[in-house]
Amino acid sequence: MGINAIDEIATELKNRHLKKGFIITDNGLISCGVYQKVANVLIKGKIPSVMYSDVRPEPTVRDVKNAYNELKRSGAEFILAIGGGSPIDTAKAISIIAKNPKYDDVVSLGGHKNNLNQPLPIFAVPTTAGSASEISKSFVITDEVNEKKIVCFNDKMLPIETFIDAELMTTMPDIVTLSSGFDALAHAIESLISIKANMFSDTLSKDAVKIIIKNLPVCYDDPENLEARENMAYAQYIAGLAYSNSGLGIAHSIAHAISGKFNIQHGIALSMLLPTVLKFNMYSPKAHMYKYIAEAFDIDTSNMKLEEICRAVVKEIEKFKNSFNVPKKLSDYGMLEQDLDSLALRAYEDACTLGNPREVTMTDIYMLLKKML
Ligand SMILES: [Fe+2]
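A: This is the predicted complex of the input protein with fe (ii) ion.
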């Protein structure tokens, strides 16, 4: 991690005797020059590679199949994923399929698979500060036919090495800064109050919440502020480590359900969900953890009762979200009341629901969604 961390890529590949690469990225990173910066390191190190850039945000089953076909043709020995969650998640899927072709329908990758052959090695260069896909044991693909998200769990496809160079993040468009930043904030907060949280995840998530609250507005107002970008790069990474060890909660369950059906970025969905979900979860055995979120907002809690602290946190998160130019309601994305039953069912069945600190029913989720229409 650090400025020019990418310069180490060629040496690391050579140390592992890896000779031919498949670079997976997106077209936005080609136009802003980020892809070329990384590719130059491979060229300088005389490591041949094939580039594939047709990765779209929230990649679908079809996107993964297309990328896999190109990977097969390339004969590559390793994958280098450059980008945010979408290229890295696509890399994870094709790295598994390359060595386990029985999953080439992609849909059957859902859930946890035992006895996988070791996937093709992945190296990652994250260019957003949020998804933490490079450290997460899961990845998400959109099943466009059934309009739902396929969540896959495994630690075999974790990148072997990740190169975090915040300078590559200064060209991030505002909407990506926001979406990935709110994703990181949701990882940190949901990990902090998860029913499965532990000492390790708590230590990381407490810090991550504070760093994100302080630095996301700076990155948004001053995109080239390298110090704030580095702070966000670090915070999203530790938030990823935290939630990989604690699980998440219903903000993520609902976000998976709605962004499977509507064209809404994961982090933007989470920005809308966080205040409502935090209000719901304040009546839970993890309410005492809200005081760490209060600290991040510099709220003086010394003379406050727990319920007052929780209410103050919900108010501050709402204010924080409203300080950015993000959509306010789910109906802005065409969501109607008649959609809520199926969305509530999908969110209820999502694996993240198990980490929620308050027991939740399908009716609860329906009512939360209704409030946000
Ligand atoms: Fe997320």
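The radius of gyration is 20 Å. Residues 199-221 form the longest helix (23 residues).
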